Amino acid sequence: MNPVNSAILDPTTGWLILALFSAVWVFLGWFWGRKTRQLDEFMLAGRNVGMALGVATAMATWVTSNTTMAAPQLALQLGIWGMIGYSLGSVGLMLFAPMARRIRKLLPHGYTSGDFIRLRYGNLSWRIFLVISLCYAFGWLISLGMAGGVLIHALTGIEYQLGMTVIISICVIYTLLGGLRAVIGTDFIQTILILVGVVVLAWLAIDKVGFDRIHQSVLEERPELLNLLMPAAIMFLFNNLLFGIGEIFHSNVWWSRAFAFREGVGFPAYLIAGLMWVPIPIVAGFVALTTPALGLNVPAADMVGPMVAAKLLGVGGAILVFVIVFSALASSLDSLLAATSDFITQDIYHGHINRNASDAHLHKVAKIVIISLGLMTWLLCLPRISTLASLLYFMGPFVASAIWPIVAGLYSTKANSTAASLAMLMGTGLGLYSYFAIGFYVAALVSAVVSMLLVLIGMWWRPESYDWRQLNSRSHV
Asked: Which residues, at least 6 apart from 7, have a Cβ–Cβ distance to it below 8 Å?
């Protein structure tokens, strides 16, 4: 689907910006990856990432294209609670801070979140977790690829498929060249671009439109967006909180950084990144509330952010939002490519196909997997079959079901492996049922509650006595 062309930039300018970004990121990928020879260096940046890079990579990875594009969409649909609810995604980062410290302590030689589930709960829970994690990873990859195509088309008129192809290709190339070291290095630069760009965009938007005009226009044309008692919006608030926690707690994107950070860095890095992340979706969502005042006709809800920015700020605004969202997109897509590649290489290939593979062989396999993931994402993104928010929130039940098995497994020796398996299966199943029967705004909430009850019942009914020393192993099979 190609939305109505409302582009501010001409295609030539769009291609020039894409060419510049592409050249810079590919060069940096080569530069940071030129000395990467060992598996630990490629997958985990040598397990020696410091504070500045640690904060930047956590911040930039969580400021996804979904944040800068889906937050305005949700503000347009759910009003004030839409953008505030999205900002609660920061809670997941902050709560992961103490978990990152514990993960680094309990699994000093770990590679993936799958390592923990397998060693803590056994093969059945591990395989259920693999399915959940891969479903989520592909859902996120597709949403990021779609967001890239939508952004480029909305701002430049370049065809959705062409823009999406370029962005996915560039991220694959520099991730392939430099591994996690290149991902984290580029994240640092992207974080600076995102923060500066968001601040400038917010200040200019307020200066040109003003709070009074925005409030009056919304009150006259879309008063429901100011209703703090909108039931769907309130449910979304809690649903998004649990969805964000589930995304971070289970995903190998965040576990790989816990393993990669230098000892003592994980806790403050995630905490600071979470605090810095809070205002981003609020500012991005606020932009959508200017739609009535500007008299914009938005053909697709997930285009509202780029359209408003371009309308407010003209060519300069279009370039600014292009830089912001491109940086946010790249910082998340590269991280997800690297982390999902680690997951498939270690947990599926090494764990199920070739248990005797050497580190050198796994290094080669990881690169093949990155290329394969990029190709599969591209194929799945070609038909734009869904809006960003609906695709993203379909994954809510999957990730929310893993919250309590992970938390209980990390902090209690009594967590029951059978209960953990049931919690992930039934939480996902009932959450998906709620998604279709009630709405996206309750799916993760239902999944998390079901999962929590089953984990707690299992710990009470048949408590186990786990020895933490079993986690202190380099074995991955």
From this structure: 153, 154, 155, 156, 157, 310, 318
| Rounded-to-integer distance, Cα 284 and Cα 302, Å | 12
What is the C-alpha to C-alpha distance for residues 234 and 345, in angstroms, rounded to an integer? 40
Q: What are phi and psi of 111, to 5 degrees?
A: -115, -40
Q: What is the mean pLDDT of each run of 10 residues along the chain (477 residues)?
A: 56 87 86 80 87 86 68 72 77 91 90 92 94 88 82 81 90 88 82 76 72 71 65 65 79 90 92 86 76 68 66 71 76 85 93 90 93 92 66 79 93 93 95 85 85 94 88 60
Residues 6+ apart with CB under 8 A from 20: none
- 154: nearest Cα among 370, 326, 365, 412: 326
Q: Quote the tokens at residue 435.
A: 């998604």
Q: Which residues pair with 49 in a beta bridge?
A: 261
Read off the pTM.
Answer: 0.83
Give the other-Cβ count within 10 Å of 109's Cβ.
Answer: 14
Which residues, including other chains, have CB under 8 Å from residue 263's CB and lie 6 or more apart? 104
